[in-house]
Amino acid sequence: MVALRILIVEDDPAIGELVRRFLASQGYQVDRAVNGQQAKVMSERFRPDLVILDLNLPDLNGYELCQWLQQRTGVLVLMLTSRAQEEDWIQGFHRGADDYMTKPFSLMELRMRVGALLKRRRAGNLWETAQLEFGALVIDPQSRQVSVAGQVVPLTPLEFNLLWFLASHPGQIWNRDELIRQVWSYNAEHVGDPRVVDVHVGQIRKKIQTQITPELIITARIQTVRGLGYRFSADPPAPGL
Hints:
Elements: E1 5-9, H1 13-25, E2 29-33, H2 36-46, E3 50-53, H3 62-72, E4 76-81, H4 86-94, E5 99-102, H5 107-124, E6 132-134, E7 137-140, E8 145-148, E9 151-153, H6 157-167, H7 176-184, H8 196-209, E10 221-225, E11 229-233
Parallel strand pairs: 1-2, 1-3, 3-4, 4-5
Antiparallel strand pairs: 6-7, 7-8, 8-9, 10-11
Helix pairs in contact: 6-7, 6-8
């Protein structure tokens, strides 16, 4: 089996080399960039399955680089940074990050999170099934695209996985911990704040809502079930997701 490829974007030589050696010892093919411009070049040459990205880069804003990577390649992105405020990780997820870790960090936790992300990527490749259609809303697992009335909704890989999972189980209520296990592929206690689920649901709703006009009513949507969690409903209540 070909080793999965990981690109580390880290300007601190001690941390970068530590992470590179550790992941290489786990059987991954690993390369490292020390700034944003180098990361752009290497991402197209190296074609990583996962990028581990520090936000504090000497030349580029890490959030902007994450967004560029998502728009260009759709690669999985794990942010590994010293920025630990709530607004930092919310901004990270808004810009397309699939996971967020803060420094200082445990190498064992890093191994777990990397493995879970790459497991999700492998599982996503096996989703060879019919597309889901809910009126104007279409979810296609083969192209991994979501559209509303023919207009593509630009979801990140993680947002697509979350929407696909919920839509594949219409009417079933899932709490945050269950969604983290099913979609993030690891135990909830390792995620940190379970409100990451709320952030991604909010992003999905916002992106789909931008495709809706007064003439277009979309009845399929993610519902919040107060005190319990979320469910995907295809029933015809009020307009919107």
